[in-house]
Please model this.
Amino acid sequence: MNSFGRLFRVQIFGESHGESVGIVVDGCPAGLPLTAEDLLADLERRKGGQQKGTTPRQEADFPFFKSGLFNGHTTGAPISIFFENNNTRSADYEKQRSFPRPGHADMVARQKFGGFEDYRGGGHFSARLTTGLVAAGAIAKKLMSTITGGENISITAAIAEIGGEADQEKGLQKAIDAKDSIGGIVECRVTGLPAGLGEPFFDSVESLWSHILFAIPAVKGVEFGSGFAAAKMFGSQHNDAIEDMSGKTTTNHAGGIVGGITNGNELVCRLAIKPTASTPKQQESLNWDTQQIEHFSVKGRHDLCVALRAPVIVEAATAIVLADLLLLEQHLHRVVR
Model:
């Protein structure tokens, strides 16, 4: 439900326009030096209003640690982090309450929770909750740097396309001209990992990684290595020839994962991010008060392209999975020395 992981376990909480959002990180080893400043760089990257095409909603996103730290180090107990919501405009959602927004969870939330859900800003379904994921990911990144060779582990996600265009500005302009929102593709690469992480079948690296990636709002597709292009290839083309006993390969169509297990090569995945569902373009949809199809448009502050803010969230989700796998394989221990 709202938790993920086995040894390095995270639990998100909060609503977009509630008092706060946050996360609990359980299973983080004791002895890791940690302060709020360690999280701020990634939290800043996630914020809206930092670049063209993102929501003008501004929140401080300062992490308030409520447990799990003592004398500047993790204690081994659960780490709870709160982020205050101060820049909300809930009236925007009250005005359009009669229309369950197409592409949003409004309709299914009402069906599932009987109308008791907090609908303001998407409530618990909102991407606002990814603030906590980014905080947990920053902790996971710092934790991984403490293992032998961990300083060589690099997790980098970046925009690959916006609206089918490699030129980000060109893709955004398509949406601006259409007075609509637009989607994009994010690519994530991980280097420096040891071979042997993951298990066959249900706990394969692809299974666990895609599980948390699909928890990021607006993600509609994930592929690893050559992904769907592999369906058009011959086996002799797709196979990655092994060069030496370390497992290094001449190509990397597998994306660094074979049999569900890391093979020591670069991990590569790509994510399809759908267009922002809240678009100012006039649409037709159900008015659930009148039960008639009517014209409406979504008002308020929204991203032109949610993919723009996704890279740091993708990095965080990836770091959470990898920290868990490294703990399971005992590359990380209960106490940081």
The first helix runs from residue 37 to 46. Residues 93 and 120 are 6 Å apart (CA to CA). The two ends are 34 Å apart (CA to CA). The longest strand covers residues 154-162.
